[in-house]
Prior knowledge:
The protein has 600 residues and is an alpha+beta fold. The protein has 17 helices and 23 strands. Helix 1 packs antiparallel against helix 2 and helix 11 packs across helix 14. It is globular. Its EC number is 2.3.2.2, 3.4.19.13. Pfam families: G_glu_transpept (PF01019). Belongs to the gamma-glutamyltransferase family.
Amino acid sequence: MLIGVPRVQVLKQFGFILLLTLPIPIIAQVNPAAPESIDEKKIKVSTASGQSVVVTANPLASDAALETLKKGGTAMDAVVAAQTVLAVVEPQSSGLGGGSFLMYWDESTRSLTALDGRETASAQVKEDMWIETDGKAVPWLKATKSPSAIGVPGTTALLWKGHRQFGHLPWKDNFHKSIELAKKGFIPSPRFLRSISLAKRLGINHSESFKSLYLPNGSLPNNKIPFRNQKLASTLSRISKGGVNEFYRGNIANELIDDLKLISNGKNEIKLITNEDLANYKVIKRKPLCRKYKSWNICAFPPPSSGGVALLQTLGTYELLSKNNVSESSIKHWHLLAESLRFADADRSKWIGDPIDFPVPIKGLLDDNYIEKRVSTIKSNKATFRPLPGKPKGIELLDLASQPRTAGGGTTHLVVVDQYGNVASYTSSVETVFGTRNLSGGMILNNQLTDFSFVSNVKGKPIANRIRPNKRPLSSMAPVIVFKDDRPVLALGSPGGWLIPHYIANALIGTLDFQLSPKEVVSQKLLSVQPNYTVLEKSGDWSSEDNNIYQSLSNQGHQLKYSAFSSGLAVIKWHQGSWHGAADPRREGKASSLQVKKNP
C-alpha cells in the first residue's frame, strides 16, 4: 500500500515534494534526500556513437571535452576541460571549490587508477561541531549554510594530478573554453535558473556574494542575456597559468582564507579551513574495488566512498537471488533488486568511513560466503524491513553504531573514451545545490562536511563516519568501469546523494542482464529503497493492466511510495565495434562523439 497520512496531498514546486496535511497550515519543506529539480518534460534522449564519446551533464561541457579530443587530447584532458566548464555553467553541482573521484583506464599501460580528490575536514574541527548547546544536532539546512561545513577542496588537485599522469595537451589549453564562457557569458538554461530558485529556498541571506551574482537586484538572471562570472574567469585564468600551487599555496588560497574569515564574522565557534589545511591537501591514489558479476568484472571506487561497496554488494546479492533468469518487467526482478539494495544499505550505514579513522572491512563485506549468508535471510516473495547490518570478517575489534543517511544532491557525473582507448569515469560534487551558497573568487564553496554523521556516537558506540581532523567524509559517489575479458566495455555513474548506487545498480542490471542500450538504460524507470519502504519513480508505468508491478510488490509486503528521482546517469558502452553513449533525460546532459579515421 502507499504510505501516507490521512488527507495527504502531494504538490511539486521548484522540484520539491511538499506533503500537506489539511487543515494544518501549508509549509513547504525541502526533501534533503533528493533536492535537485528535474526536467520531467524532456523526452528526447541525447545519444552518440563513435570511437571517441563524451557524456556530461551540460551541452557546453560536452562540446568543450569533444573539442579537446579533436585536438588530440586524452580522456583526462577532456575531463579537465569538461569540469572547468561545468564550474561555470553548472555551478550548482560541481566546481573547483568541491571534490571529486576519478576512475581512469590507461590503455597504454593497461592499468586502472582510482584518484581520490574528496574534500577533507580542517585540522581544527571538533567532533561535536554539529551539536548545539542544547545537545541536539544542528538542523541540516542550517548546517549547509555554515562556513564550518566547507571542506578543503580537492577537485583542482585531482585534475592536476590526473593531468600530469594521463594528459597530453598543455594544462592551460584545457581551460580556454571555461575562461571564455565565464568572461563572455552563456545563456542560462532552464535547469540553471531552477537551481537558483532552489538555492533561494534552501537559504541565501547569509551570502551577499551569492545574491549579487546569481540574483542581481533580487531577480533571476535574464534567460536571454549571457550570464557572466568575471571573478571565476580570473580564478580559472590564474589556475591555468599557476596550476595546483596557485590554488593551494598562492593568491587564490590567500583570498579564500580571507573570504572565509569575513564570512565567519569573527565567530570563534566556527572552525574554518586554514592556509595550512590547503597547503597540506593531498590527492590519494587508491586501489579500485573490483568484483566479478557473472561474466563481467565491475570496478568501482573504494572508501571513503560507500557507493562502490554498496553497489558491489547489491550486485552480488542480486546475482545469487536471481539465479533463475528474470526479465526486466518481472515482479521478481523488482522485488529482488529492492531487497539487494536494502541489505547493502544496512551495511554501509555501519561499517564504512574514511579508513584513516577506523579500518573498513572491505574484504569481509565483499566475501562470497558473507554475501551468501546475507542472501539466506532474504525471502523470494516477502519484503524485509529494516534489515540489521551483517557481521563480516574484519570487524572483530570494531564496535560501531549505524548512522542515519546523509543528504545531498549537488553532484555531477561524466564519462569519456578517447581515440587512444583510455576511459574516464568521473564524479564531482559541491554537496548540496550550490554547496554552502558561499563564494570565493567566483567559485561555489562546498558544504561537504555535512556528509559526516552529525553525532559521533550512539549509546557510547562510535560511528565510522564521525568527524575527525583531516578526515574525508563518507561519500556515495561511485564512478564505475566494467571489464569483460580484461577490456573496458562499459563506463557509467550518476549524481544523486545516497541514492547513487541505487541508480547505478538499476543501470548495470539493465545493461548487463537485460542487454539494454545506453539510451534504454538512462530512460528506464527507477526503483530505490529506504530501510522500511520501497520507492518507485513516479513517472514510471508501474500499474499496467498486463503487469501491475505496484500491486504485486504491495502483495509481497512492500510499503510503497512514489518520488521524482534526480538521477543524472552518464553511460558509454562498447557494442559491435564502437562506443555508444547516452545522457539521462532527467537533466540537460549531452552525448557527443568523434569519428576517428584509422590508417588502412
